[in-house]
Design a protein that fits this description.
Layout (H helix, E strand, L loop, with lengths): L2 H8 L9 E3 L7 E2 L5 E10 L11 H18 L3 E11 L5 H17 L3 E9 L4 E10 L15 E5 L4 H11 L4 H8 L5 H4 L8 E5 L4 H12 L1 E6 L7 H6 L4 H7 L6 E5 L4 H10 L4 E9 L5 E6 L2 E4 L14
Parallel strand pairs: 4-5, 9-12
Antiparallel strand pairs: 1-2, 3-6, 4-6, 7-10, 7-11, 8-10, 9-11, 12-13
Helix pairs in contact: 2-3, 4-5
The structure holds adenosine-5'-diphosphate, thiamine diphosphate and magnesium ion (3 copies).
The site of thiamine diphosphate has 14 residues, from loops.
């Protein structure tokens, strides 16, 4: 395999997005979108940080890398359109294995009518997949973390803690296909999020590091307090049965579930429930927003007791403790 024959092997033979002018073939791609706002994000997956040869096959690496990016597009309320892929490839990876990474990306991309429009390929020591995505959203309807207001209902989609439990299943040989699939091939909440443009105001964030982190990001950005009830936070019975001493921690800070946490006025809450039903996305109330002094905070109510919920999920570039 060389760089150019590899690029030839992954070059799309056709494109789906009508706004595309130039795809994979020149120095850069070109698309034109005069009527909507453009949303863009990049997320990176690195061997031995986000996956290992043991936890994921090449297909899952591609799928999961694009899913993480689509989750950020969902968290902005946008509809996916394009992606670019930057690869660092160790010398022991074959073209067939890299083809599998792309097959994983394509399965999700075709579901959301996305086009691969470029990327970059270099050699290196550990596999690294960095994806840049573009999506569209109705003008001024991107959904920000800073939009929460006192009196709002806090909601969450799907179930939390599954991806962390799935990782544990893989590492310890526990055969729970549902949880393992939640870790390897998460389902970003695009179909729900793209329906949110009809709302006057929604705050939204996706759960990549754990809701303890993401709830705090909303609280800080909006300068409000989020009051969450642990008893309302959704999780599967599997994780509490399989991992009784650890699941509570994973529900709050396991991360990588790629669900959404958001807030909406009490008046528009029934409309969220309706939109979620149309999108086939489970959604539940998990708490309320209250006024804050200066900086915002998150409180967790559990068995009648209240505690501060600090950021506790996955954080990169942490200083080593001695
Ligand atoms: N190395 C970087 N250079 C520039 N911007 C960055 C870098 N890393 C993160 N960001 C920006 O910081 C913000 C938060 O990033 P991140 O925590 O990764 O968000 P998310 O959890 O949604 O992926 C985003 O606006 C992101 O684009
Ligand atoms: C082998 C392995 N070890 C540990 C983890 C757990 N893990 C790695 S990164 C991460 C957090 C999410 O990734 P990040 O790069 O922080 O995404 P972002 O916040 O930028 O969306 C978690 C929980 C994993 N997925 N695989
Ligand atoms: Mg990120
Ligand atoms: Mg995010
Ligand atoms: Mg992160």
């Amino acid at each position: 395999m060389d760089e150019f024959s590899f690029i030839d092997s992954i070059r799309p033979s056709a494109y789906l997005q009508p706004s595309l002018i130039k795809g994979v073939s020149d120095d850069a791609a070109v698309f034109r979108q005069p009527s909507e706002d453009i949303v863009t994000a990049v997320d990176t997956m690195v061997e031995d940080v986000h996956f290992s040869r043991e936890t994921m096959q090449p297909y899952h690496i591609g799928y999961r890398a694009l899913a993480a990016n689509l989750s950020d597009l969902a968290a902005m309320g946008s509809t996916p359109a394009f992606y670019l892929v930057s690869l660092v490839v160790p010398s022991d990876w074959t073209q067939e294995e890299l083809g599998e990474v792309y097959r994983g990306m394509r399965s999700l991309a075709s579901e959301y009518h996305m086009d691969l429009i470029g990327g970059d390929t270099v050699s290196g020591k550990q596999l690294c997949v960095s994806i840049t995505v573009f999506g569209y959203v109705v003008k001024d309807k991107a959904r920000y973390r800073s939009a929460a207001q006192s009196g709002d209902i806090v909601f969450a989609t799907g179930t939390l803690g599954d991806a962390r439990a799935g990782l544990e299943c893989i590492l310890n040989g526990v055969n729970d296909p549902y949880l393992i699939q939640r870790h390897r091939t998460p389902d970003p909440r695009i179909n729900f999020a793209k329906r949110l443009s009809s709302f006057s105001r929604v705050a939204l964030n996706d759960v990549s590091d754990g809701i303890a982190n993401e709830a705090n990001e909303i609280a800080e950005a909006s300068k409000v307090e989020l009051h969450l009830n642990f008893e309302q936070i959704p999780y599967t019975s599997q994780i509490s049965e399989l991992f009784p001493s650890r699941y509570e921690d994973w529900v709050l800070s396991g991360g990588e579930d790629f669900e959404l946490i958001g807030t909406v006025s009490e008046k528009e809450w029934p409309h969220i429930v309706e939109v979620a039903k149309q999108a086939n996305t489970p959604v539940v109330e998990i708490g309320r927003v209250k006024e804050s002094g200066q900086n915002g905070a998150v409180y967790l109510y559990k068995e009648g007791k209240r505690s501060i919920l600090n950021k506790s999920g996955y954080t990169h570039l942490q200083e080593e403790r001695d």
